Amino acid sequence: MINAILVIGGLAALFGLILAIAAIRFHVKSDPIVDKVDALLPQTQCGQCSYPGCRPYAEAITNGSADINQCPPGGQTTIIALADLLGKDVKPLNPENGEEQVAMVAVIDEKECIGCTLCIQACPVDAILGAAKMMHTVIAEQCTGCDLCLPPCPEDCIEMVPLAQSIDSWKWPIPESPVIRGSISK
Amino acid sequence: MSTTRARIWPFFGGIRLPGHKSESLGKTIQAHSLPQQLILPLNQHIGLSATPAVKPGDKVFKGQLIASASSSVSAPIHAPTSGTIKAITQHPTLHPSGLNAPCIVLEPDTQEQWADTIKPNAHPLQIEPETLRKLIGSAGIVGLGGAAFPTRLKLETGIENNIDTLIINAAECEPYITCDNALILERAAHIIEGIQILLRALNISRCLIGIEDEMKPAIHTLKQALTLTDETDIRLVETPTRYPAGGEKQLVKTLTGKEIPANGLPSDIGVLCHNVGTCYAVYQAIRHGIPLISRIVTVAGPGLGKACNLEVLFGTPIKDLIQLCGGYVNDKTDLLIGGPMMGYPVNSDELPIIKSCNCILVGSRSTKTEQTVMPCIRCGECVDVCPAKILPQILYWHAQAKEFDRIQDYHLFDCIECGCCDYVCPSHIPLVQYFRFAKNEIWSMEKEKLKSDQARERHEFRNQRIEKQKQAIEERRRKKKAALENKPKNLADDPKKSAILAAIERVQRKKSVADVEPKNTSNLSNAQKRQIKETDERRKNNKSE
């Protein structure tokens, strides 16, 4: 009896020790799920999900305080990918957060720009170039189309335009689906 | 010398197609007259666009460089004739999208004056291999079989991978296309010399020329040209006439028995593949110093007056070529760039010919497209003909469902888009278009992923910077506060302040004694007084004047 208790107790203590060492040795600082969720988000940093950027939204999804359908720039593709990752059901985009749109890019009307630097401060990805009292311009390749530079502009000289299609970005369309003949047993 | 019946390793699948070759063969290659203007897209090849080296209004000579290669994966462009640069502008180009791309517009002056940079070489085979590769690159040569991959880069990868065999693709397997065939019939000796130059540029001696066994006259001509050279390591190999025998992977398999690995290149298995048209371009560039400014284009199809092969300057609009071939048979015709199997439709005949365009087909697919697309019945015909040994039917299901992960598990990227599955499908499903769609979606997703990774990096960097700035401000504020708190109450205790106070006092003391008489005017002699008076007078006079 005593032996059995000692053996089981000893084993429990040993495994407990191993687990404790493993927990310290293989400690992961950030939540790996947050990273995975963050990798699926489009990184526009637009805040339409009501969180101040993609990573905060990823954190909110992971701890269950946000749903997976709050990202309009990502649209249905992102929702499907998130549902796939988290084992949730696919649902349509929450209309409260906005609608899925074509990719946009900000354009500054350079004649109107007074060089106030307000848009530069607003840009989450540093995609606007300029200095005080100097004309500003948008680095189109880096612009995520988040709209955040529009409200601070005192001159209303920033416009969102759909990303122009070029030969490089052109894609073959999906062919029309085959015709399903209504009555085969005619 | 060549031995005809060499051993071959036939590839899997493929189909026997009606050739329609005789329609454009049998006539000599016609040179095309100068069009009103030439439109030269900056991107006529795989890779980055060339950078313009001229500006509007410039006068250029024939063969002069007008756009230089912007990276190693790019090719320069030369003026096809002498004339004036009218503009560098957006213009629709030969592309399935029909979208605009930057082009150089050249107005010919009909003088055909060659640039003085054109230098022929009497002994091309004595040039160093490295110099040869450089010359081939600067002549703007790209693969003329259709893919338009910069030839110099291909040669360099061959050198890096120590390849031992050069394979020349003369198996023009698509129906209607005869531009390579016509080139062999008329200029076989030049092609052989081009091959010799390529062999020297690669530092190897073994070469296999793959040609379809039904191209009898071309085989005969090549054999004769080979007997005239003392070359012993160039061999002509006849391959069965079966589409797509001229596909790079299929030809390499047929000639060497080795398969190019998935996502690999021919150089991975020690071979390099070049088209006969490219060999001719290499000959022209090295022997005569003429850069790539023209190519042979087959103009054929049921909707055309008479099919023929034309030697066309790049930038010539399609409609000029069609006019020369007797014009359209009826009003409503389709235009296909490339052959009936792999070509893509375009909706305008104003588009200019570019380096990759080997054939213009007029109204040939109409019979196929009019058929109603029906659901897949899983007959498996497509699997039997697929030369890439993949499962088109499964790929089709996944492409339709947009399951882009699953589709890659079934080796979508091994598909060479030959169109065999389309051709045999009893339900007339445009399978290849589904595969192109899926490939494009996957590429675009990869691009987007790259962009979003960049955005994440930039956002994180910005957050860090703002945090740093905040800390710096806080630090400054803290220091200032500490300095204020430590400030001595009495002014005299602060050495700086006391120094300032002392200086102020000194100045005030000086000011207070400034009103006394100048000491140097007392006790003057009479002569000195007179001199002062004279000087004062003179000064007064000067002033009044």
Q: Which ranges of chain B are low-confidence, i.e. pLDDT below 50, for 5 or more consecutive residues?
A: none
Number of helices of chain B: 15
Strand order of the largest sheet of chain A: 1-4
Number of strands of chain A: 4
CATH superfamily of the domain at 32-97 in chain A: Electron transport complex subunit B, putative Fe-S cluster
Largest sheet of chain A: 2 strands, antiparallel
CATH class of the domain at 32-97 in chain A: Mainly Alpha
Seen as an oligomer or otherwise, the chain set is heterodimer
> Could you tell me the strand content of chain A as a percent range?
5-15%
Q: What is the β-strand count of chain B?
A: 17
Q: Radius of gyration of chain A from the CA trace?
A: 26 Å
Structural class of chain A: mainly alpha
Overall radius of gyration of chain B: 38 Å
CATH architectural grouping of the domain at 32-97 in chain A: Orthogonal Bundle
**At the third CATH level, what is the topology name of the domain at 32-97 in chain A?**
3-methyladenine DNA Glycosylase II, Chain A, domain 3
The helix content of chain B is 25-40%
Let me know the average pLDDT of chain B.
89
